């Protein structure tokens, strides 16, 4: 099973996952108390899969809010580290491109967050 974490849209978590060759997109509303890990657990439970069934991950970077990008990257990197699986950062969701790129990534190489704009942390307001 492959998983792409997309946290780039306000108030929504999108998980894209493949079972064999079929990709499925599931969206979860953040205002219903969902987060990335609880959303992932719900998908795994409904599909009859376990975390150990994950073979590779992707995290959407370069679009969306600063904090949302950091959360997606942190969750993805943590899962990749714990499960000893590869992870890549992607800017657009293209399943064929994702699968091709993931094959070239070594286990232990992690994703850095890339942002759609400059961070405003610590800047003085005018």
Account of the protein in words:
The chain has one domain: 2-Layer Sandwich (Nucleotidyltransferase, domain 5). The radius of gyration is 15 Å and the shape is globular. The protein is of the alpha/beta class and 126 residues long. The chain has a five-stranded mixed beta sheet, sandwiched between helices. Helix content is 30%, strand content 24%. The model has no long low-confidence stretch (mean pLDDT 87).
Could you say which structural class the secondary elements and strand pairing correspond to?
A: alpha/beta
CATH topology: Nucleotidyltransferase, domain 5
**CATH uppermost class:** Alpha Beta
Weakly predicted, low-confidence segments? none
The helix-strand sequence is: EEEHEHEH
Q: How many angstroms separate the termini?
A: 49 Å
Strand content: 15-25%
Identify the quaternary structure here.
single chain
Largest sheet: 5 strands, mixed
Domain module count? 1
Element layout with pairings:
Blueprint: E1 2-6, E2 12-19, E3 22-29, H1 36-47, E4 56-60, H2 66-83, E5 87-90, H3 95-102
Parallel strand pairs: 1-4, 4-5
Antiparallel strand pairs: 1-2, 2-3
Characteristic terms for this protein:
126 residues, 3 helices, single chain, 30% helix, Nucleotidyltransferase, domain 5, alpha/beta
Compact summary:
With 126 residues, the protein is α/β, with parallel strands linked by helices.
């Amino acid at each position: 099973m492959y998983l792409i974490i997309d946290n780039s849209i306000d108030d929504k978590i999108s998980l894209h996952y493949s079972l064999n060759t079929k990709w499925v997109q599931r969206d979860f509303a953040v205002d219903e108390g969902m987060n990335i890990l609880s959303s992932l657990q719900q998908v795994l439970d409904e599909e009859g899969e376990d975390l150990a069934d994950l073979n590779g991950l992707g995290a959407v970077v370069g679009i969306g809010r600063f904090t949302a990008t950091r959360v997606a990257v942190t969750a993805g990197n943590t899962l990749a580290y714990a499960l000893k699986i590869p992870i890549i950062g992607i800017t657009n969701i293209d399943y064929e491109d994702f699968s091709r790129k993931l094959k070239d990534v070594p286990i232990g190489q992690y994703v850095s967050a890339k942002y759609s704009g400059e961070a405003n942390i610590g800047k003085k307001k005018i």
